[in-house]
Amino acid sequence: MRRIVVQDDVCEICKEASKMTGHVLWSCSKAKEAWECSKVNVCAARIGGVSFQGVMWQLLMVEGVDDEKAARVVTIAWTLWHNRNEMWNEGVRKSGQVLVQWAMEYLAEYGVAMELNEPAGPVVEHPVVWTPPRSGCFKINVDGATFSKQKDAGIGVLIRDDKGRVEAVLSRKIEAPLREILVCKMLFWRGIR
Q1: Strands across the sheet with 166-173, in order?
Q2: In angstroms, rounded to a whole number, what is the distance separating the alpha carbons of residues 95 and 134?
Q3: 90 in the Ramachandran plot: left (φ > 0), alpha (ψ -120 to 50) or beta?
Q4: How many helices (H) and strands (E) does the chain have?
């Protein structure tokens, strides 16, 4: 509603609450169905907050869950959000059981891919080229990408504090003629501004 994409913020599934992130991920009947199927004990009400960051903080820092459980929680939350977006674009509403099965298959595929990518020999450490800003300041890194086949372009922004912690991340599709973007990119990389 803030971005004037929708006129009504009532959850289209349960029709009981505003479809804020916390509702979509934890308290909507659709979310509760998925969490019950998952056998992962995530209860936003028990944790005392409904933000994704709050729940993850509780699980990781207070309860000390292992990486495997944290990965399951993140992936199930992602499938819930993804399915919500699919429904918004006239896709099919999937059951909680199907979403959890999809999340677990996705995690298994990821695990196999990571095992295949493990280096055979010793890992060579490269020197760090990023230097932090002076104390109390932030550093902003910006990059762009062009996708010729899709005739599209995008930009990414990363903001870090003086300790190297990520403070904000943004990526956006750029609405501009691809030819002009490619020319600007070419001139930039050649050092002509």
Answers
A1: 138-147, 152-161, 166-173
A2: 50
A3: left
A4: 7, 3
What length does the chain have? 193
What is the reported pTM? 0.54
CA 22/CA 101 separation, integer angstroms: 22
pLDDT in tens, the chain (193 residues): 666 666 667 777 676 766 667 777 777 778 888 888 887 777 654 444 467 787 888 788 888 888 888 888 888 888 888 888 887 777 788 888 888 898 999 888 888 877 776 666 677 777 767 788 999 999 998 888 877 677 777 888 999 999 889 999 988 887 666 666 666 666 666 654 4
Structural domain spans, the chain: 21-116, 138-189
State the DSSP code for 92.
P
Kindly provide the b/e burial profile for residues 117-150, where b requires at least 16 CB atoms within 10 angstroms of the residue's own CB: eeeeeeeeeeeeeeeeeeeeeebeeeeeeeeeee
